[in-house]
Amino acid sequence: MIEQVARILRLFDRSEQPVFAFDEIQRWPTDLLDRLVSIGLLHEIEPAELIACNNCDEGHVLEPDICAYPDIGEVAVAKCPTCGRVQFSLDRLRQWGVHGDGLANHLANAITAGKATVLVPQRCWRLGPLYRDGVYREVFLARGLTWPDAGDVVAQSERLAACTVPALLVPADIPEVEQWPKVVPATAALTEIATLTAAGLVVDWDRLVQIPITAARGAGTSVTDPDSEAALRAIVLTDVEGSVLKALARKPNKAFGRDELVDASGYGKEATRNAVDRLIELGLAARPPGTRRKGVAITPRGLRYVEMIQTDGHPG
């Protein structure tokens, strides 16, 4: 990973409001700022109120005034104890912060072509369901899980705390296992399993799903295989969801468009759309791979579920 990106992620995990000043960004590789803004990792924030003098060795911190001149426009003007009156471009007051929602939405889009769900503002997000090589996980992003209030963040993130098959992305620092109430998520740091490409921040999802989920210490519970027969039998679908899933199962190697699936299931557009969303959430259906991500198809997990309910009449 590019060192500047790794530094951003480390500070995002260790500082409440990391800020990156114009002077630092000028030393970054060309176009890196534009790429990080475009994917949502950084966004420009309010200009700085203080600026370091770059005309003297001491680097005095100055509080500039904004002055306008007919010939050059607005500039920042301050008085340095060593240099006297100094003048700066307003660009030097520009600064950028990490945009947690933007990062979460970028990662969620890579999984489901959708947006992330905020569980705890600026701390924890649900990215969506991930299905890779027969393995189903619910993926979350959280920051600051090594901070003193990490336990409170986990408790407030009810969807994460209650999930039996969680995969957790953290920016840089892996949290301690003691704070997990039921299961310890399969946890990986973005600094370790993500790379910055022309397409954005790309996560090695296959590597993430290979990380084991373990029982929390003293939880008195075991980790259930989400693809076991017992786990599948615990799923109860509505009539609409069952009809949509069975429609998908009729052509397991095909991705259905929205209108086509409405016709095949026999329900309206809104009901079908809601059913598709839940089937994807359960790992029974998935968007096709690739950049266009049009349509929806049944997963091997979904096929096993359909075979089960057709065999023994399990609710669905």
Overall domain count: 3
Number of helices: 13
Count every beta strand, where a strand is a DSSP E run of 2 or more residues: 19
Radius of gyration: 25 Å
Major sheet: 5 strands, mixed
**Could you tell me the strand content as a percent range?**
15-25%
Q: In terms of per-residue confidence, which ranges show pLDDT below 50 for 5 or more consecutive residues?
A: none
Spatial strand arrangement across the major sheet: 9-10-11-12-14
- What is the overall pLDDT average? 87
Structural class: alpha+beta
Separation of the first and last Cα atoms: 45 Å
- Helical fraction equals 25-40%
Principal-axis shape equals: elongated
Topology:
Layout: H1 3-14, E1 19-21, H2 22-25, H3 32-38, E2 42-44, E3 51-52, E4 61-62, E5 65-69, E6 73-80, E7 84-88, E8 95-98, H4 100-112, E9 117-120, E10 124-132, E11 135-142, H5 150-156, H6 158-162, E12 166-170, E13 183-184, E14 186-189, H7 190-193, E15 194-197, E16 200-203, H8 205-209, E17 214-215, H9 229-233, H10 239-249, H11 258-265, H12 269-281, E18 285-286, E19 297-298, H13 300-312
Parallel strand pairs: 11-12, 12-14
Antiparallel strand pairs: 1-8, 2-8, 3-4, 5-6, 6-7, 9-10, 10-11, 13-17, 15-16, 18-19
Walkthrough of the structure:
The chain is an alpha+beta fold. The chain folds into three domains: 96 residues, no CATH class; 116 residues, no CATH class; 84 residues, Winged helix-like DNA-binding domain superfamily/Winged helix DNA-binding domain (Arc Repressor Mutant, subunit A). Helices cover 34% and strands 25% of the residues. The chain contains 13 helices and 19 strands. Helix 10 packs across helix 11 and helix 10 crosses helix 12. It is elongated, with a radius of gyration of 25 Å. The model has no long low-confidence stretch (mean pLDDT 87).
